[in-house]
Amino acid sequence: MNHTKPSHDHPHAPKTATHGAIRYLDGSVLKRPVDPPRLVMAACVAGAVIAAVIGGFAGSKAIDQILHGEERSAATIEENIHRNVSYDLPVLQDYIDLDDGSIATALQDAGYTTVNLLGEGEEGFDMMKLPSDVTVDDAMVAFAGGIGKMDAVQASKYLVGSWRFSTERKEGVSMRIRYADLQSADAGQAIQSALESEGWADNNAVAISDEGIDEVGNTYKEGTIQTDSGTYTWRISACPLADVYNISGLPETAQYVGIRMQK
């Protein structure tokens, strides 16, 4: 005999159907359509549209970068190389008789934007002139990792119009200027451009005593110059910039140029 007695239904309990001693929950409520409120549906649709737009924009940018990124970089490099920025190379014969402090003052008076490359406590003179269209702060950030760590866009911006001027006074006086020439077609043209910048081309006071390719592969010209204070020797050399800095994307004809004058 079954002594189980059903309890009274709670007012909010699910309805049940009873067949004999077995009780079944009323599942009709589960068969109703599950439709969210209209405001929720609108918000979901709007969110989906926004997500699709953002995703499409990001995707199009990524595709554009893959397809046209190199073209834009090449165009920027070309623009940087040929922008209206002058090297304003120092004429070494104007500095050869000056001490290091006087050289620094003369460069400042000439209006150059320069950065001292000597470390704390180091003696001598080693200074870099920056392009006239960049700031010292930006240049310091760009040069912080070293020129060899720059990409081609950075290098074309900060190397064009810049040079490094250093002196050595151990045995007599030796002055050197080094810079990247990204415009010349070859080493010979880069050397000729340097000769003209120094005022040594077609100069009766300048004699060329030797030229060619040295033992390490540099193309060079060297000779003497007569000045009011005496006779000095000079040398201009050039080698592919790629032999000094591995920066992909710069012109293959780019040259690394050095000008030296000593007494």
Q: What would your notes on this structure say?
A:
With 263 residues, this protein is of the alpha+beta class. The protein is built from five helices and ten strands, in the order ββααββααββαββββ. The strands form two sheets. It has an eight-stranded antiparallel beta sheet, covered by helices on one side. The protein has a two-stranded antiparallel sheet with strand order 1-2. Strand 3 and strand 4 form a beta hairpin. The radius of gyration is 38 Å and the shape is elongated.
Global structural class? alpha+beta
Could you state the order of secondary-structure elements as H and E?
EEHHEEHHEEHEEEE
Number of strands: 10
Mean pLDDT: 84
**What characterizes the major β-sheet?**
8 strands, antiparallel
Q: Percent of residues in helical segments?
A: 25-40%
Shape annotation? elongated
Low-confidence spans: pLDDT under 50, at least 5 residues? 1-11
Number of helices: 5
Rg computed from alpha carbons, rounded to a whole number of angstroms: 38 Å
Distance between the termini: 128 Å
Strand order of the largest sheet: 3-4-5-6-10-9-8-7
In brief, what are we looking at here?
The protein is of the alpha+beta class and 263 residues long.
Set down the secondary structure blueprint.
Elements: E1 16-19, E2 22-25, H1 38-81, H2 100-109, E3 114-116, E4 125-129, H3 136-143, H4 152-158, E5 163-168, E6 174-181, H5 187-198, E7 206-213, E8 219-227, E9 230-240, E10 255-262
Antiparallel strand pairs: 1-2, 3-4, 4-5, 5-6, 6-10, 7-8, 8-9, 9-10
Helix pairs in contact: 1-4
